[in-house]
Amino acid sequence: MITIKSQREIELMRKSGQLASETLDFVESKLEIGMSTEDINTLCHEFIISHGATPAPLNYHGFPKSVCTSLNEVICHGIPNKKDKLKDGDILNIDVTTILNHYHGDTNRTFLIGNVSDETAKLVEVTKQCLEVGIAAVRPGAHLGDIGAVIQELAHSHGYSVVREYCGHGIGREFHEEPQVLHYGKKGTGVELKPGMTFTIEPMINLGTRHCVLLEDDWTVITRDKKPSAQFEHTVLVTETGSGVEILTLSNPK
C-alpha cells in the first residue's frame, strides 16, 4: 500500500533528508587517494550518530556497515572494508540513508577520484542527468512509467544501459515502502502520482551491458562485463504546488 504523507511527516522527512545530504557533503571533503572504504564508512557513521540519527543500512537484513560504497564496476550495495582503497581514476558511489525522528532520508552520489578517464567521467555526468530528468517528470497526474521512460531514453541516447534488477522505492517510516520505481519503462504506465507520495529515484547506469552479478557476500552487485557503473539518488515528494515535485535530500533546502 502506498502511503500519503501528512505535513508533519513531510517535515520530518525533510530534516532526515537534509542530514543524509549533509553527510555526503562532509565525506566528499575528506575523500583522498589511499583511504579505504572502511575509513569512509567510519566517517559517515560518526557524522550521522553525532547528529542524533541512525544509519539505516547498519544491520538492515544483516548488512554489516553504515553506508554502501560501490567502486567502479560495483553497481550497488558494496560493503565497506579495509582492503578496498581509493586509487587515481576510480569512481565511487556512496549511498547514505539516515533515520532521524523515525523517518528516513535516502540519497547517493558518485564521486570522481583523481584523474578519471573522459569516458568514465561522461558516464557519471550522464547518470546525474538521468536522475535530473527523472525528477523533472514527477508531478501530480503523471505516472511512474514516465520517470523510467525519460531515464531510459537519455541513457540509451548515449549508448549506455539501465540496470533493471534494482530500482527506486517508496520511503518514509520504513526504509523500503511501495511503490517500486523502475528506471526504464513506457510513458503513461504504472501508478498515477498523487500529492504526498514520497519515493526515491536512483538510476544505475552502466557503460557496457545492463547485466549484473550478485557476489558471494549476497550484497555486492557488479556488472557482468566488469565495465563501470554510476548512480545518483534523491528522495522526492510529489507536491500540489510549484513544479509538482520537491527534492527532500538537499543540504540547503529552499
Please provide a written account of the structure:
There is one protein chain. Helix content is 27%, strand content 25%. Strand 11 and strand 12 (221-223) form a beta hairpin. By secondary structure, the protein is α+β, with helices and mostly antiparallel strands. The protein has a single domain (7-247), classed as Alpha-Beta Complex (Creatine Amidinohydrolase), CATH 3.90.230. The strands form five sheets. Strands 1, 2, 4 and 5 form a four-stranded antiparallel β-sheet that branches. It has four helices and 15 strands.
Structural class: alpha+beta
Number of domains: 1
* Rg estimate, integer Å: 17 Å
User: Looking at the structure, what is the overall shape?
Assistant: globular
**In percent, how much strand structure appears in the residues?**
15-25%
Helix fraction bin: 25-40%
CATH topology: Creatine Amidinohydrolase
Sketch the major β-sheet.
4 strands, antiparallel
How many β-strands, per DSSP? 15
- The named CATH superfamily: Creatinase/methionine aminopeptidase superfamily
What CATH architecture label applies?
Answer: Alpha-Beta Complex
Question: In short, what is this structure?
Answer:
The protein contains four helices and 15 strands. The strands form five sheets. Strands 1, 2, 4 and 5 form a four-stranded antiparallel β-sheet that branches. A hairpin with a 6-residue loop joins strand 14 and strand 15.
